[in-house]
């Protein structure tokens, strides 16, 4: 298939949408007024662009009203206060009071098997590395009953606080110890100083809230043919405005709406902005469950999440066959977007729930580093100074062009279904993390 359509994104319009989402609205945590305001902005812009069938599909979610972590580390004589964040999913410390305990260092994941034992009871466990990624280890940590857990994110040696969370399904099923996250460089310092004890206080207020997926369409002339779904998520983690994660993806969808409206393609192009992604793809999982019987009508999902880093690499995180990935990479390269393909099943983005049901689905992602990390991830640096308008324009042009080529295709160019090498792990993750069964 030769590229036939060249879309010309407008830089002033990209900037305007970015300003609206990040400066005027700001933080957009799931279930908050900010998230709702962003959903309304998106629906309003899509109506203005002339898209059809613009509507919102609300769903219940847990909303963090407020979360505060206080942590002091030291030895018997002297304690020093550190900045920290509550890890989403964590309960408050008992009676919202301070707990104090001896530190127990566990280097993850290699020491977890041996060290998650009753000997941790009442201690304050410092996890250096990821929180448990296997349900059985998470359960063992909960059963060991530490007084609290301090999580040290080792993906990058940063010095500022970041917000993250633990899988909501695990918290519901197995519980979770009171957990805070501290910056790597500060943990480095207190380890060096020989800290032996910590005092931790966590106060979390939650309420039952509502999130929403926003949907719109560029109607195709043949509505019975499998459609092209373009996705992004409009929510953020707590305490940041998410200029890259993921206002960048939403701004792309808003611009694509302007560029694609009125193109009258053969197949329908559907745009979906998901809510509550930061709680682990909650909105997209909700969407596939609610539309399960119509998923055969979705031919492909092209999801955009954190795509506008100033420096970095363009990744294509693929749920689907190698033939699908190969076709897409080629088509993007012809539109001057070279990408790195990542075929390992990855549940932390909105393409994943679709791939569980055999829909060829990718997430476009732009990490800074080959390791996949972004230094501005989930923190105060994810602001409008650290996103690139030209880079986003490049993504919009390539992804929009490929989406339009697919929407004009008489013959669909790749098969449905997962790659055989992805099947077992995808189904395990779907079951373990989402309670989804294909
Ligand atoms: Zn994201």
Summarize the structure.
The protein is of the alpha/beta class.
Would you kindly provide a written description of the structure presented here, covering whatever features stand out?
There is one protein chain. The protein is of the alpha/beta class. It has 2 domains: 11-63 and 208-434, Aminopeptidase, CATH 3.40.630; 66-206, Glucose Oxidase, domain 1 (3-Layer(bba) Sandwich). It contains 12 helices and 14 strands. Strands 1, 2, 3, 4, 5, 6, 7, 8, 9, 10, 11, 12, 13 and 14 form a 14-stranded mixed sheet that branches. Strand 12 (315-319), helix 9 (322-333) and strand 13 form a beta-alpha-beta unit. It starts with 10 loop residues before the first helix and ends with a helix. The structure holds zinc ion. Residues 233, 245-246, 277, 305-306 line the site of zinc ion.
């Amino acid at each position: 298939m030769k590229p036939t359509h060249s879309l010309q994104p407008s830089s002033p319009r990209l900037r305007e949408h970015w300003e609206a989402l990040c400066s005027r609205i700001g933080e957009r945590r799931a279930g908050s007024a900010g998230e709702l305001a962003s959903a309304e902005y998106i629906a309003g812009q899509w109506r203005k662009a002339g898209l059809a069938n613009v509507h919102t599909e609300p769903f219940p979610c847990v909303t963090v009203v407020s979360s505060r972590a206080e942590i002091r580390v030291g030895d018997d004589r002297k304690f020093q206060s550190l900045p920290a964040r509550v890890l989403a999913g964590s309960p408050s410390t008992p009676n919202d009071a301070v707990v104090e305990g001896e530190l127990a260092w566990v280097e993850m994941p290699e020491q977890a098997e041996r060290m998650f034992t009753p000997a941790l009871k009442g201690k304050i466990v410092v996890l250096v590395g990821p929180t448990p990624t296997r349900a059985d280890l998470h359960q063992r940590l909960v059963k060991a009953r530490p007084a609290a857990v301090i999580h040290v994110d080792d993906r990058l040696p940063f010095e500022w606080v970041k917000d993250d969370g633990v899988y909501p399904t695990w918290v519901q099923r197995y519980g979770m110890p009171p957990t805070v996250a501290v910056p790597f460089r500060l943990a480095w310092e207190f380890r060096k100083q020989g800290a032996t004890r910590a005092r931790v206080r966590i106060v979390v207020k939650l309420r039952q809230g509502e999130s929403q997926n926003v949907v719109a369409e560029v109607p195709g002339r043949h509505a019975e043919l499998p459609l092209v779904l373009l996705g992004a998520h409009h929510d953020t983690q707590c305490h940041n405005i998410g200029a890259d994660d993921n206002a960048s993806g939403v701004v792309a969808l808003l611009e694509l709406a302007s560029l694609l409206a009125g193109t009258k393609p053969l197949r329908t192009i559907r745009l979906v902005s998901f809510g509550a992604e930061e709680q682990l793809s909650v909105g997209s999982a909700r969407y596939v469950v609610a539309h399960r019987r119509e998923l055969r009508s979705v031919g492909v999902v092209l999801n955009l999440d954190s795509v506008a880093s100033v420096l970095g690499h363009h990744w294509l995180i693929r749920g689907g066959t190698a033939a699908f990935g190969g076709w897409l990479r080629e088509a993007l390269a012809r539109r001057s977007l070279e990408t790195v393909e990542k075929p390992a099943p990855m549940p932390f983005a909105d393409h994943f729930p679709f791939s569980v049901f055999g829909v060829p689905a990718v997430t476009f992602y732009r990490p800074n580093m080959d390791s996949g990390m972004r230094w501005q991830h989930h923190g105060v640096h994810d602001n409008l100074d650290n996103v690139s308008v030209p880079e986003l324009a490049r993504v919009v042009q390539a992804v929009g062009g490929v989406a339009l080529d697919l929407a004009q295709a008489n013959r669909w160019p790749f098969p449905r279904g997962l790659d055989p090498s992805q099947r077992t792990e995808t189904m395990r993750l779907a079951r373990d993390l989402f309670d989804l069964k294909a």
